[in-house]
Design brief:
Layout (H helix, E strand, L loop, with lengths): L5 E2 L10 E5 L2 E5 L6 E4 L1 H15 L2
Antiparallel strand pairs: 1-2, 2-3, 3-4
Length: 57
């Protein structure tokens, strides 16, 4: 399976996060050769909500 990795628009000085959406959740990696985290859909939504709330503080 080929994944469509998308790079964060907040990438600074090669400190980037890539995200790929799959049928069963979201994959996140810090670089192309590093470990990959898997978030179930509910956990990914909760993380995004929490990050957006923190950004508005």
């Amino acid at each position: 399976m080929t994944l469509d990795w998308r790079r964060s628009s907040h990438c600074e000085s090669n400190q980037c996060v890539d995200v790929a959406v799959t049928a069963d959740g979201v994959l996140v990696r810090g670089n192309q050769r590093g470990p990959v985290l898997h978030f179930p859909p509910e956990a990914w939504r909760a993380l995004c909500v929490a990050l957006k709330a923190d950004a508005t503080r």
